[in-house]
Design a protein that fits this description.
alpha/beta; Rossmann fold; Dehydroquinate synthase-like, alpha domain; 7-stranded mixed β-sheet; 46% helix; binds glycine
């Protein structure tokens, strides 16, 4: 087992990564169960495919569990579901010392973390992510949220989990498209500040997608080590370090908005195309070489990810896409910080981007 510590002042927590962990989850979780019972939140897909194994492992260890099942997908992250979930936790006499278990992808982790934050003015929770995207990104770092009618993730809080339990073997049942969407976030860590890891992704992509266990475990461990380091340096995104994790997200947000935040373009796919656009925009500004931008697009495309507006199936023009960006929650003081790059592994935050120029760039991209 690999243990990675998220070294946040006053409340550090561990991430355990181990193939087969779910079949042995009681060993990791028993210290967190009050009087031998756990409250588990999951969704209806995970309830069918993963929960039986977890329940079996808990039962063998004489740990009882009550389960709350959300509808799968973004619909699970609504005010209505939050109300049902918090009512359920209270009906089950949740106490502040209890640890709620979030078993699922990003939606389950986000709403469970937010419910834990608000119920009884703050309970603890444990993340057990079952998608690659949740394992390498959303389960670590304490961003929790639900969606509101004004947009995605606009109601939320920073609330760190007490523990993150990752079983790479659970990815065996994940559809390839979802695996690729999570791999976009893996590649992102290489692009931010780790050129060697980007090269590792180039060299090991085929093994990763073929199901090679060592490649999968290495990709996950390296990603969570990167995320832990960045979160520890800037837990609440105040000094610019954590903002680096938003590479590709400003362009990506516009693409997701244009495709209706739907399954037409998964978040990880939008981030992939967004990262390719951020690199090509950096080339336009004379910051980065064409060679580096081409390497980024080539790797994304090898992973089956979109690297252009056309591949993302986005038809809006530059002005429309910039308009979507203006509704991004990263807007600050009337300006929109952009993540640009001077090369692979050399991303940085710029507050000097001229939105009219971004619109022209996107129009040129649409023609290419
Ligand atoms: N997913 C970006 C962050 O955790 O900051």
């Amino acid at each position: 087992m690999t243990v990675v510590t998220v070294d946040i002042a006053d409340r550090p927590y561990d991430i355990h990564v181990e193939a087969g962990l779910l079949g042995d989850i009681a060993r990791h979780i028993a210290p967190y169960s009050r009087s031998g019972r756990l409250l588990v939140v999951t969704d209806d897909n995970v309830a069918k495919h993963v929960w039986p194994e977890v329940l079996g492992a808990l039962t063998r260890a004489n740990i009882g569990a009550e389960v709350f099942v959300l509808p799968a997908g973004e619909a699970g992250k609504s005010w209505g579901q939050l109300e049902k979930l918090t009512d359920w936790l209270l009906e089950h006499h949740i106490e502040r010392s209890d640890h709620i278990i979030a078993l699922g992808g990003g939606v389950v982790g986000d709403i469970t973390g937010f419910a834990a934050h608000v119920v009884k003015r703050g309970c603890s929770f444990i993340q057990v992510p079952t998608t690659l995207l949740a394992q390498v990104d959303s389960s670590v770092g304490g961003k929790t949220a639900i969606n509101s009618s004004a947009g995605k993730n606009l109601v939320g809080a920073f609330h760190q989990p007490s523990l993150v339990l990752i079983d790479p073997d659970v990815l065996v049942t994940l559809p390839t498209r979802q695996l690729a969407a999570g791999f976009a976030e893996v590649i992102k860590y290489g692009l931010i500040d780790d050129a060697d890891f980007f090269s590792w992704c180039e060299d090991n992509l085929d093994a990763f997608f073929a199901g090679n266990a060592a490649a999968r475990e290495y990709a996950i461990v390296h990603s969570v080590q990167s995320k832990a380091r960045i979160v520890a340096a800037d837990e609440k995104e105040l000094n610019g370090t954590r903002a680096l994790l938003n590479l590709g997200h400003t362009f990506g947000h516009a693409l997701e908005a244009d495709t209706g935040f739907s399954d037409r373009l998964f978040h990880g796919e939008a981030v992939a195309a967004g990262m390719a656009l951020a690199f090509r925009y950096s080339v336009r500004l004379g910051l980065c070489t064409v060679g580096d931008a081409d390497r980024v697009s080539a790797l994304l495309e090898r992973a089956g990810l979109p690297a252009s507006l056309a591949e993302a199936d986005v038809t809006a023009n530059g002005a429309q896409l910039v308009e979507y960006m203006l509704h991004d929650k990263k807007m600050s003081g009337g300006t929109l910080p952009f993540l640009l790059a001077s090369g692979i592994g050399q991303s940085f935050l710029s507050k000097d981007v001229v939105l009219g120029d971004v619109a022209s760039f996107l129009d040129a991209e649409a023609q290419s």
